[in-house]
Amino acid sequence: MKREDFYAYYHHQIELATLKKKSRRCILTPEQKSRMRALDASQDDERLDLAMTIGECTDPQTRTMLFMRFLDFRSWAEIAQAMGGGNKPSGCRMRVERYIKRVDRRD
Fold it and tell me: Burial of 59 by CB count in 10 Å (0-12 exposed, 13-18 middle, 19+ buried)?
């Protein structure tokens, strides 16, 4: 799993947010509606793929951090607070980055 795969989901979130803002201001054209449906479908597929990839992590704490960061979109401070045990935001971030690097080396 490459690092870009973990961040691909964010790109679709941004596109969907942009389309939804437009829909509040005006009526969407049929092309925009179909694009929005396609993005929603691809986002669901990517979310499932990402969840399955994260589920392969054998360490339960790292897996929890990955879920909170990439699927729940929590900040590092929120993750550190939720994990407890004196974890700091920078420590959680480093742990996740090290895991991603380890997985990159295997691929």
Answer: exposed
